Amino acid sequence: MIALDAVERRFGERVALRDVSVRVEEGQTLVVFGPNGAGKTTLLRVLAGLLRPHSGEATVLEASLPNESWKLRGKVGYVAHEPLLYRDLTPRENLRFHARLHGVAEARIDQVIDAVGMADRADDELAELSRGMVQRIAAARAVLHDPPLLLLDEPWAGLDPAAVELLEPVIGRASGKTRVIVTHDVAGGLGEADIALGLRDGTSAPATDESAIRELYR
Amino acid sequence: MIAAAAAILRKDLTIEVRRRESVPAMVLFTVTVFVLFHFGLDRDTVEGDIATGVIWVTLLLAALLGINRLYVAERDQGGFVGMRLAPIDLTALWLAKAAALFLYLVVLELVALPAFDLLLLGPGLDGAFPELLPILLLANVGLAAVGSLVAAMAIETRARELIVALLLLPMLVPVIIASAQATEPLLTGGQSPDDLAKWLGFLALYDVVFVLVSVAVFDFLLDE
What we know:
The structure holds two protein chains of two kinds.
Chain A: E1 2-11, E2 14-24, E3 29-33, H1 40-47, E4 55-60, E5 63-65, E6 76-79, H2 91-102, H3 107-115, H4 131-143, E7 149-153, H5 161-171, E8 178-182, H6 186-192, E9 195-200, E10 203-205, H7 210-216
Parallel strand pairs in A: 3-8, 3-9, 6-7, 7-8
Antiparallel strand pairs in A: 1-2, 1-4, 4-5, 9-10
Chain B: H1 2-19, H2 23-40, H3 48-69, H4 72-76, H5 79-85, H6 91-119, H7 129-154, H8 160-171, H9 173-183, H10 196-221
Helix pairs in contact in B: 1-6, 2-3, 2-6, 3-6, 3-7, 3-8, 3-9, 6-7, 7-8, 7-9, 7-10, 9-10
């Protein structure tokens, strides 16, 4: 499903990812830990086909990156730092827009709105919603087209415990999807992980247990 | 591609109707410039080449206001990322933005031309509309095609407004020349231009060339 071998990504002179290798099988969850600036979001964007790897070999959903990144379009659900939603539209309008881009039937919009518990606020403008509510709509957008791979950047940020529980079947392990999660929540992340990857200054670092992960942040 | 472009256009028009950020600014700018010309030229009316210059330069500068805002929501609110993740030809984005700009220009001209007629124009526009209409439509297509392309090129730069103006204005010189040449006789007491067909053909050729160029290169522009 995902195979990275010595992947490197630079921004000008700065190396954001160096010699990163990992393998994730279908249905598994990879959790990525690391301090700010370690390269976690860059890794997600490489896996989404949004950034080219500059060297190494990267295969995601049988697409060899960067040459076949177009094959990933429509197959990845991405919850980013930003919700990727328009502030001047309502949640329903945002989801309808993405549904049209992905060729998804209108009926699916109500399904995902119900799944994230936003039916009663679906027609309010996004700007009027709390951060946690916007995050729920961002999760709904990510799964709208039922992608086989979820890339989740701090997916629980701003969510209360009830919302985390509500989203479990949507983006949690119960979704059954292959997931890559970036988080600073060490205990929560380890609870989700089949594979844990540590990153520090763009380089793989040990993430074998909780103490090793906490060491990454020192 | 057409379905994706229609979805993007619909989204843009919904936001514009709701927020009124581009078209009102373009209209207000245009009317204000006409008033300034009225006093700056110290004349109650203009006609001929001066009238042509005033109307086309004003419309072009007003278009810049809309062009500068075309992709702001995509950059600031994650639209580019969302579209790059979707199974669409990204040329749909260029097409939708060009269509939105074309519609903004039509609305602008619906207000600007009567305002120009009222505030500045000597001969009046009454008899000129049949000939003026194809000139405006073809010029709008050129402005929209090139504007959508250049706005996408400049959106990630820090000096976006400057870059758009520096790149776009030279590229639009042929549109201004052809539009002005075709329009000038119409603003000189209703004379019909002898070589209207020649200038309309020139504008149509310009439009075809830049539509083809935009379709060919736009997908590469958004790569990272």
